[in-house]
Amino acid sequence: MITKQVRTEGNEYLVTVAEWKSLLSNNEVFTEKRLDTVMKWELLEKLAIGNVEDRVLHLLLKLSEQFGTENDCFVKIDFPLTHQEIANMIGVTRESVTTILKDLSPKGIIRTGRMQISVHS
User: Fold this and answer.
1) Which residues form the HTH crp-type domain (predicted)?
2) Residue 62 burial (CB < 10 Å; 0-12/13-18/19+)?
3) pLDDT at 74
4) What are the distances in angstroms from CA 50 to CA 25, 46, 53, 74, 91?
5) Residue 76: helix, strand or coil by DSSP?
6) Considering only the top CATH level, what class is 51-121?
7) How far apart are CA 44 and CA 60, in angstroms?
8) Cβ-count burial of 120 within 10 angstroms (0-12 exposed, 13-18 middle, 19+ buried)?
9) Residues 110, 58: contact at Cβ < 8 Å?
10) What are phi and psi of 77, to 5 degrees?
């Protein structure tokens, strides 16, 4: 019998794989929390091992998904955002962010303005 270890709020359980699959398919809240955790790990992985351009793009995409407003095939991030703030969020220099944003803009991937960034949808 194959089992899976499950931890919940300080408790640990051993369940069979069949029970685990049943738990995932029948518990919407549990599935959403698990998906949220997986997405956070994916973000951390991108920020930890991606190259600087990938990290900038991934951050801007996530911010536009969570805080964006669609406008003319672009999604505007609905709060002011400086190059330094982006750099701080992903652990790089402001100069690196500025260079990358300048490269992405003519390619039509992003639009930038005074403390505003929109991502192509």
Assistant:
1) 50-121
2) middle
3) 95
4) 32, 5, 8, 24, 12
5) strand
6) mainly alpha
7) 14
8) middle
9) no
10) -70, 120
pTM: 0.62
Cβ-count burial 16-43 (b if 16+ within 10 Å, e if not): eeeebeebeeeeeeeeeeeeeeeeeeee
Which sequence spans correspond to the domains of the chain? 1-49, 51-121
The token pair that represents 81 in the structure block: 């955002």
Which tokens go with 1? 């019998």
What are the structure tokens assigned to 65, written together?
Answer: 């998904």
Q: How far apart are CA 39 and CA 62, in angstroms?
A: 11
CA-nearest of 17, 16, 97 to 53 is 97
